[in-house]
Amino acid sequence: MKRGKKCPDCKEVNDSGASFCVWCGTNISDVTIGDHPEEETTRRNIDNSFPGTPVTYVSRYKTAIFVSNLVSFFGWVLVAMGVLFAVIGLYSSLSMIGMLPDLGTAVSGLFLVMGGQITKATVDNADHTREILQRLPER
Ligand SMILES: [Zn+2]
């Protein structure tokens, strides 16, 4: 149960102290405070506030995504090259010490991949936050 004022216009339940409905702006200062079952307090489905609007997902950070993909790609190339040269070095010189610079290259490559993925995650997060803000009902 939620105690509050039920809007006569849109049927949403507002806080007891509210003067105007937070959902549609109707003056509810004269509405009597009462107890309402939980299902009456359920907020409107956010999708319904934009009827007929297809869910389009267009990133504003195309360049950042492109760059982060590029960085990840070069990272993997470095990893592959480092591992390859390390294996070749091991077979040709039969010494573990000769592998170290190549393994260093592979590790740097991994960090590049990581950096690229972090950038992409940040960009995705920014896009999703923007979309959430757009889908919130206008107050
Ligand atoms: Zn209302």
H/E element order:
EEEHHH
Number-wise, the strands total 3
Lateral arrangement of strands in the main beta sheet: 2-1-3
**Major beta sheet summary:** 3 strands, antiparallel
* Average of pLDDT: 79
> What's the Cα radius of gyration?
28 Å
Structural class: mainly alpha
Span between termini: 25 Å
| Domain tally | 2
Helix fraction, binned, reads 40-55%
Assess the beta-strand content as a share of residues.
Answer: 5-15%
Stretches with pLDDT under 50, minimum 5 residues: 44-56
Ligands present: zinc ion
Q: Output the number of helix runs.
A: 3
Give a short overview.
With 139 residues, the protein is mainly alpha-helical. The chain is built from 3 helices and 3 strands.
Please describe the topology of this protein.
Layout: E1 2-6, E2 13-14, E3 33-36, H1 38-41, H2 62-93, H3 100-135
Antiparallel strand pairs: 1-2, 1-3
Bound molecules: zinc ion (ZN).
Q: What does this molecule look like?
A:
This protein has 139 residues and is mainly alpha-helical. It has two domains: 2-43, no CATH class; 62-129. The chain has three helices and three strands; from the N terminus they run E-E-E-H-H-H. Helix 2 packs antiparallel against helix 3. The longest helix has 36 residues, at 100-135. It is rod-shaped. The two termini are 25 Å apart. The relative contact order is 0.13.
